[in-house]
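Recall that a protein's primary structure is simply its ordered list of amino acids. Everything else, from secondary elements to tertiary packing, is in principle encoded there. The following example makes that idea concrete.
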Amino acid sequence: MIPYGLLVLVSGIIGYARRGSTASLARGASSGVVLLLTGFLGLKAFEKRRNSYVALVLETLPFVAAKLHQQKSHELNQPMLVQNLLTV
């Protein structure tokens, strides 16, 4: 989750830098930070040879949010590229 969290965070920053999109920055930063946090929690739990159910629940939040956004975009007939990128 840590590399994916960094990728999402950086992509939000790039979206803001290229287009000035505060929505891209907000979504990328919030999802990236949550994924980084869950990666860190999962890593610490793995070191202790335990499961981190908090990390498991938090890992699903950005994906659920992306899926809900995808459904909303589909209803608004936005381009498929946007929908496909959000579910990757």
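The radius of gyration is 14 Å. The helical segments are 2-19, 22-47, 53-75, 80-86.
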